[in-house]
Amino acid sequence: MSENATASLAIEGGPKSVSSYEGSGPPKIGVEEFMELADTWGFTEETKESIRQAIGRDRFTSPMLSRYYNPKPSKVAALEALCRELFGVPYVLAVNSGTSALNTAYVAAGVGPGCEVIVPAYTFFATVAEVVTACAIPVIAEVDESLTIDPQDIEAKITPRTRAIAPVHLIGTCADMDAVMGIARKHNLMVIEDTAQACGGEYKGRKLGTIGDFGCFSISSYKITGGGEAGLVMCKDKFLYTRAQNNHDTGACWRPDRFAVEQEEGELFCGYNYKLSELEGAVNLAQMRKMPDQVNRWRTAKQRVVSQLKQHEGITPQKVNDPDGEVGYKLVFFPPNTAESMKVVQALAAEGVPVSCRGDRESRDWHIYSYWEHLMDRKSASADGCPWTCERNAPFVPDYRPDMCPRSTDLLNRAVYVSIDQWWTEQDCTAVAGAINKVLGAFYACSG
């Protein structure tokens, strides 16, 4: 190459070959995408046109809707920071669903082939399914009159292969965490709290989801707090948090140097992509700000109703492990048998009370163990039957049967659920309590 040719190179001080580009276009993500959100919110055509005109006057760059490399403050990071403050834990990881949260926690806790996790007979199936996707074996324990896992049955189900206990804080109430933690520490087990249905609840002054080794949350449209689909993983141990980060993002974008070699054994492994998008982060940041007031309203409403209820012979109230700490969006009690439960529900509904029970209905329900055919039939995504046929699991797989937890079945068939509305006034609460007393008083003798 000649000296003159070298001198003409821009890197050597010569002129640039390309100084500008004529072709340009709008941001990749712009007005049309924002208008689809406005349509999702259900605004009228008139309002949407006003929104379009307003945002069309602004110049903006395409937003980064993945949480990493966002030039503006990340809504997902803000959600995690808010939850660290609300729940008083050092580590919070936002993920894309409650199911992802469970899988992330199980894997981070070391659950895998040859391990067992004790789960309650009453929980949404995801609590159980993610044990299986971690290639481990679920062991089903009875629930007691709290409708949460029975500590006595936990003790009966522990084997040398037990790795973790997964207490579930269902329908706004809390498991007996003193007993659960006592058993876990005695046997050196991990505790992974499923708090999908009790976000903001407490047990003896401690937030649910912060008592065990991990707390898993679903914050979605189907839960009392949340919109769309999102989840949270909480923990207190830095290394467990690091493993959780890896499982939720095998691309390792969370590391200061994402391509660095492993800094600590067990830090890097083949994980998934459970990252939460900035859109979901923004919605659930707003939702989580509302959570404390939501919980206070529900708790107040339930306590107003309960304080006015009379005791009736034959009616067993739900065991509430911490009346001051539960969220309180369900009031539960147990008539003597399923036929009477259905009779009570029909009478309460006629009085205008929002109420339900399972009774003797045979409808399938993924919250009840006897309908988990995935387990009952040991179904597998692969032809080889893994994890049931894995040599580390196969000799120890339980004999899953629809009648294996008779106490749970009996309680769930008899349970009467009264739905509490967070917006009830004192007068509303008095009216509902009066209706319950009226119906129970018509069928059962008053005992207090």
| N-to-C SSE string, H for helix and E for strand | HHHHEHEHEHEHEEEEEHHEEHEHHEH
Would you identify the regions where 5 or more consecutive residues have pLDDT less than 50? none
Count of DSSP-assigned helices: 14
Q: So what's the overall shape?
A: globular
| Whole-number mean pLDDT | 94
Q: Work out the strand percent.
A: 5-15%
The major β-sheet equals: 7 strands, mixed
Number of DSSP strand runs: 13
| CATH structural architecture of the domain at 75-287 | 3-Layer(aba) Sandwich
Distance between the ends: 103 Å
CATH level 1 name of the domain at 75-287 = Alpha Beta
The CATH superfamily title of the domain at 75-287: Type I PLP-dependent aspartate aminotransferase-like (Major domain)
Give the strand line-up of the largest sheet.
1-9-8-5-4-2-3
- CATH topology (level 3) name of the domain at 75-287: Aspartate Aminotransferase, domain 2
Task: Output the radius of gyration.
Answer: 27 Å
Alpha-beta classification: alpha/beta
Query: What proportion of the residues is helical, as a percent range?
Result: 25-40%
Keywords for this structure?
single chain, 448 residues, alpha/beta, 13 strands, 7-stranded mixed β-sheet, Aspartate Aminotransferase, domain 2
Task: Give the SSE layout.
Blueprint: H1 3-7, H2 31-40, H3 45-56, H4 75-87, E1 91-95, H5 98-108, E2 116-120, H6 126-133, E3 137-141, H7 151-157, E4 162-165, H8 177-187, E5 190-194, E6 202-203, E7 206-207, E8 214-218, E9 231-235, H9 238-248, H10 278-306, E10 316-317, E11 330-334, H11 338-350, E12 355-357, H12 373-376, H13 406-414, E13 416-419, H14 426-443
Parallel strand pairs: 2-3, 2-4, 4-5, 5-8
Antiparallel strand pairs: 1-9, 6-7, 8-9, 10-11, 11-13, 12-13
